[in-house]
Amino acid sequence: MSNQNQDTFSVAGRQFHSRLLVGTGKYRDMEETRQAVEASGAEVVTIAVRRTNIGQNADEPNILEILPPDRYTILPNTAGCYDAKTAVRTCRLARELLDGHNLVKLEVLGDEKTLFPDVIQTMAAAEELIKDGFEIMVYTNDDPIIARELEAMGCVAVMPLAGPIGSGLGIRNKLNILTIVENAKVPILVDAGVGTASDAAVAMELGCDGVLMNTAIAAAQNPVLMASAMRKAIEAGREAFLAGRMPAKRYASASSPVDGLFF
């Protein structure tokens, strides 16, 4: 069995033990958010700057009061942005509110129905933000060529979707995710589409460095219990990857040789 305390991964020079990253939207209230995040064991918490108060609205509850930056690595994201200009402006606002914090999750969406990424706008925003000193963890589709280009641009992590955001469909194209993982020199984290614990385990068994999820936990009937399940699934999938699974076969074979035996 691997030692979870020693099996870490790094993003932009920051080292993490938990390979589960969680979002903070769609919960019933702040207390449920706090409990679910705590149960998940996550060290990285992503916050939609355009939808959540992190200090820009002085008269509203601030989510950083229940998820303090001295305990969690806050990952501002550009959820709800549909063009590069808006995404860039959102990242700059987050950096100002978080005292110069420059690690962000970039997502630029193509349309409101599918929430698929607009790759062209995403690449334009990434290029401008990298020049401005940001460290970009980038949400994209599961295209290995685009993933390679985003890494070459200087993104510190690439986050291909497993399925449409909020769909819970699981990993729809395992071969593409596997190809992205095999070719990458930066962390690859599945982002979007996870529905239950087995989906998270599969992502880890493919060799992903981590998984980011929100709806799979927040929309569960018992979000806190699901967060706990996801924590265990991530750990189990990672251990299975490190252990190296047996080859898949069409038929079982005898565990002992039969050559030379008399019948």
Automatic annotation (TrEMBL):
The protein's GO terms of the molecular function aspect are: thiazole synthase activity
Keyword Transferase in record:
yes
SUPFAM superfamilies registered for this protein in UniProt: ThiG-like
Give the enzyme's main class according to its UniProt record, as a single word: transferase
Q: Which domain of life is it from?
A: Bacteria
Q: Where is the Thiazole synthase ThiG domain?
A: 11-257
Give, as in the UniProt entry, the pathway in which the protein acts: Cofactor biosynthesis; thiamine diphosphate biosynthesis
Q: What is its main location?
A: cytoplasm
Q: Which reaction does it catalyse?
A: [ThiS sulfur-carrier protein]-C-terminal-Gly-aminoethanethioate + 2-iminoacetate + 1-deoxy-D-xylulose 5-phosphate = [ThiS sulfur-carrier protein]-C-terminal Gly-Gly + 2-[(2R,5Z)-2-carboxy-4-methylthiazol-5(2H)-ylidene]ethyl phosphate + 2 H2O + H(+)
Q: Which InterPro entries match?
A: Aldolase_TIM, Thiazole_synthase_ThiG, ThiG
Q: Which GO terms describe its cellular component?
A: cytoplasm
Binding sites annotated in the UniProt record for 1-deoxy-D-xylulose 5-phosphate: G166, A192, G193, N214, T215
The Gene Ontology biological process terms listed for this entry are: thiamine diphosphate biosynthetic process
Stated family: Belongs to the ThiG family.
**Which PANTHER family does the entry link to?**
THIAZOLE SYNTHASE
How does this polypeptide assemble, per the annotation? Homotetramer. Forms heterodimers with either ThiH or ThiS.
Matching entries from HAMAP family are given as: ThiG (MF_00443)
Q: What is this protein called?
A: Thiazole synthase
What is the species listed in this Swiss-Prot or TrEMBL entry? Candidatus Sedimenticola endophacoides
